[in-house]
Design a protein that fits this description.
The chain is mostly beta strands. It has strands spanning 19-20, 26-27, 30-35, 44-50, 74-77, 85-86.
Length: 102
C-alpha cells in the first residue's frame, strides 16, 4: 500500500484476536506489517499492538522488546475517528519503530 504525499496511509480492518505462539502461549492482538521503500534493501517487519490491551503484558514477542522501546509498537486510540487507531512508523531517531530481524 503506498503512502500519500505526506507519507501517510490508512486502512480499515477489524481488531484481530489472540493467536497461539509456536510454544502454545497466546499472543496479544496485533497486526504484522512490513515496510518497503526506495533505498531499502530488505523489508522492515514490525507489529502493531493496541495500547491498553491487558494481554500485551504477557505477549511473548512483545516481551522480547526492551521495556523503554515497546511503546513504539503500540497503536493509540485515534481522537479524530471513533473506534480508530493511529500508529506512526519512524525509520530513525529517538522514536524509531522497533523492527524485527526475521
Amino acid at each position: 500500500m503506498p503512502t500519500d504525499a505526506d507519507g501517510c496511509c490508512s486502512f480499515q480492518t477489524i481488531k484481530p484476536g489472540r493467536v497461539p505462539s509456536p510454544d502454545g502461549t497466546l499472543q496479544a492482538p496485533h497486526i504484522s506489517v512490513s515496510v518497503l521503500g526506495r533505498g531499502l534493501l530488505k523489508r522492515l517487519p514490525t507489529r502493531i499492538y493496541f495500547a491498553g490491551d491487558p494481554t500485551n503484558a504477557t505477549d511473548p514477542i512483545l516481551l522480547l522488546v526492551p521495556g523503554d522501546r515497546r511503546d513504539t509498537l503500540l497503536a493509540q486510540p485515534d481522537t479524530h475517528r471513533q473506534g480508530g487507531w493511529q500508529f506512526d512508523i519512524h525509520l530513525c531517531g529517538p522514536r524509531e519503530t522497533v523492527f524485527f530481524d526475521v
